[in-house]
Amino acid sequence: EGEGFKTVLPARATAKVSFRLVPGQDPERIRAAFRAHVNAALPSDCRARFTPHGGSTGIALPPDGPFMDAALGALSAEWAPNRAVVIGGGGSIPVVSDLREVLGMDTLLIGFALDDDRIHAPNEKYDLASFHKGIRAWVRVLDALAS
Q1: Number of alpha carbons in the 13 Å side-chain half-sphere of residue 103
Q2: What is the CA radius of gyration of the chain?
Q3: Is 52 helix (H, G, I), strand (E, B) or coil?
Q4: What is the pLDDT of residue 120?
Q5: Among 48, 64, 91, 106, which residue carries the largest CB count within 10 Å?
Q6: What is the pLDDT of residues 55-85, one digit of tens each?
Q7: Cα 92 from Cα 94, distance rounded (Å)
Q8: What is the DSSP string of 102-144?
Q9: Nearest to 77 by CA among 29, 144, 131
Q10: Any residues with CB less than 8 A from the CB of 135 and at least 6 apart, and which?
């Protein structure tokens, strides 16, 4: 155990695993399937212990809905000549599905980044220009949604 180089196999290993689910996937069913898969692959002299840390269903927004069009137009205006793009991400962040299920509200998750930014990566980097343009872009988005 402990940090540093080892010449023998350690007695214990740990891992943190998370899944980003898509609409229609049940978090409890995915959790059970993962546990079953791990347990089925374990050698007979090994055991696994699982500690759950929540879970939520995935959601998706229509890519051509009125809120999306307004947000994309506002973002593109701030970041011109670059056009804002839509990527799938964050749809299984618990608060996003809670807002839809509890309050009946859809949520836009909007990020601001350059091609070489590495948010949440080991070599994390976020350009200060993205932060400042992000502030201005949010003003544009809120104005567009209010209109």
Answers
A1: 8
A2: 21
A3: coil
A4: 78
A5: 91
A6: 888 888 888 878 899 999 999 999 899 888 8
A7: 6
A8: HH-----------TT--TTSTT----HHHHHHHHHHHHHHHHH
A9: 144
A10: none
Q: Which residue type sits at 45?
A: D
What are 110's two structure tokens?
A: 């909007």
Nearest to 137 by CA among 114, 110, 108, 109: 110
Q: What are the tokens at 138?
A: 């949010």
Residue type at position 103: L
The second-level CATH assignment, the architecture, of 66-146 is Orthogonal Bundle (1.10)
CA proximity to 52, closest of 8, 17, 25, 77:
17
Tokens 């930014």, located at residue: 117
